[in-house]
Each structure stands twice: as C-alpha cells, then as structure tokens.
Amino acid sequence: MINLAAETGIAELEVQRGDNRVRIRRASFAAPQEIVLAPTAYAAAPAPAPAPTAVTGPPPASSPQPIPTVETQQGKPADPGLVLVKSPIVGTFYESPSPGSPPFVRVGERVQPGKVLCIIESMKLMNEIEAETSGILESKLVMNGQPVEYGEALFAVRSI
C-alpha cells in the first residue's frame, strides 16, 4: 500500500477491514508517509440490548461501561451552555487564511452565524468552516496544522 501511495502521489489512503484500520498520509514538513494502525471500537455500532433475565441485582463487573462523550474525553464536563463546532470533513485544520496571517477568530471573541472560524484543507481544497450560532468563542480545541477527523470538535462557543 505504501508503494501504491508513493507511485500515484495521493495524499492519503485509508483501508478498513473489521476492527482494523490502516491509514497512510503524506505530510508536508514531516516524514513523507505516516502509517497509523488503530482499532476502531469507537466507531462500532451500539450493541443490541440484552434479553431480560429472571435474575435481579447489580450488573456483573464485566458489563460494558458507557463510552465517554467528546466533552469528557477532552477533559471538559458537559455544559449545556457550550456549543461544539465540529469538523464536517476529514482534513487539516488551519486557523488563518495563510501562514503569517492573523487567525480568523481568537478565544474570547464574539462570533455570529456565518463568521469564518477556520479552514479545513481536504484533497487540496480549502473549506471554510463557519459559525452556526451566536456566542463567545470559549476555546480552540485543535492546533494549527493538525489533522482532524469527521465530527471532531474544533471550537467551543458559549451561546448568548
């Protein structure tokens, strides 16, 4: 697969079989290719509910634990006043229109619907990500130049 990526010049190749996923990504300013192997348990569909049994009492110790939400995985408690701006695509996060330019938004700044928050580069296309709600930008959750996944939280906006 590495040879295929090198010969064709593609920027990213991902193959998934069952719980295993392989991604090869060409990165500028880093090693020419990156290989990531990771189980995709977080993307698995929820298990069906078990059939009711006659035995009552506490669940066994081996029962599955709930999967933490994005908010708790990032060390933040769920806050109903915060709205997470999530990535609609897989790509590379950029906080400004070009290197050396000021960022589109800064933490503490007020945003309105339609305000450009960042750019996500995907397949050599620059996609502007806009605010969908009014509020104060409470936090930026990713670093400039960082790869992001579909549905990954990019910003937290406090609704006003």
Provide an overview of this structure.
The protein has 160 residues and is mainly beta. Helix content is 7%, strand content 36%. It has 2 helices and 11 strands, in the order H-E-E-E-H-E-E-E-E-E-E-E-E. It has helices at residues 2-8, 70-73, and strands at residues 12-17, 20-25, 34-39, 82-86, 91-94, 110-111, 116-122, 125-130, 135-140, 147-148, 153-159. The strands form 3 sheets. The chain has a 4-stranded antiparallel sheet, with no helix packed on it. Strands 8-7-5-10 form a 4-stranded antiparallel sheet, with no helix packed on it. Strands 1-2-3 form a 3-stranded antiparallel sheet, with no helix packed on it. A hairpin with a 2-residue loop joins strand 7 (116-122) and strand 8 (125-130). It is elongated. It starts with a helix and ends with a strand. The relative contact order is 0.16.
| Rg for CA atoms | 20 Å
Distance between the termini: 49 Å
The shape is elongated
Q: Which structural class do the helices and strands define? A: mainly beta
Total DSSP helices: 2
- Mean pLDDT level: 73
Topology readout:
Blueprint (H helix, E strand, L loop, with lengths): L1 H7 L3 E6 L2 E6 L8 E6 L30 H4 L8 E5 L4 E4 L15 E2 L4 E7 L2 E6 L4 E6 L6 E2 L4 E7 L1
Antiparallel strand pairs: 1-2, 2-3, 4-11, 5-7, 5-10, 6-9, 7-8, 9-11
Q: What's the quick description here?
A:
The protein is mainly beta and 160 residues long.
Key phrases:
about 160 residues, mainly beta, 4-stranded antiparallel β-sheet, 2 helices, 11 strands, about 35% strand, elongated
